[in-house]
């Protein structure tokens, strides 16, 4: 799992940069698609292996928190994902064996997995 993309997006939000140049990998395509649907990324332009990601600047940098560390992974069962979704107003991405999903999609498909990032709604 490539956690560097999430850190780069957060750094661009801190320094209020609009464009992020990144070399694309297959795992990151799903993360980018989900962040586009959550309105964190405006749009993406592709050039060969490089991708230019345009980020919404109205989002605060503490809105996104990267929870994935290769040395300390957070595994969640489906029951825990349900409890966190009901109690907290968070949207988080979970890496499952069916791909990278939001917590709502993981509940619908009855899957658990490794927590990647947390997005605060409130």
What would a concise description of this structure say?
This protein is an alpha+beta fold and 122 residues long. It has helices at 4-14, 26-37, 78-87, 103-108; strands spanning 19-23, 41-47, 50-55, 64-66, 75-76, 90-96, 99-102, 113-120. It is globular, with a radius of gyration of 14 Å.
Structure description:
- The mean pLDDT is 87.
- A hairpin with a 2-residue loop joins strand 2 and strand 3.
- The radius of gyration is 14 Å and the shape is globular.
- The chain folds into two domains: 4-61, Ribosomal Protein S8, Chain: A, domain 1, CATH 3.30.1370.30; 63-120, Dna Ligase, domain 1.
- 32% of the residues lie in helices and 34% in strands.
- The two termini are 28 Å apart.
- The chain has helices spanning 4-14, 26-37, 78-87, 103-108, and strands at residues 19-23, 41-47, 50-55, 64-66, 75-76, 90-96, 99-102, 113-120.
- It has 122 residues and is an alpha+beta fold.
- The protein is built from four helices and eight strands, in the order αβαββββαββαβ.
- The strands form two sheets. Strands 4, 5, 6, 7 and 8 form a five-stranded antiparallel beta sheet that branches. Strands 1-3-2 form a three-stranded antiparallel beta sheet, covered by helices on one side.
Protein topology:
Elements: H1 4-14, E1 19-23, H2 26-37, E2 41-47, E3 50-55, E4 64-66, E5 75-76, H3 78-87, E6 90-96, E7 99-102, H4 103-108, E8 113-120
Antiparallel strand pairs: 1-3, 2-3, 4-8, 5-8, 6-7, 6-8
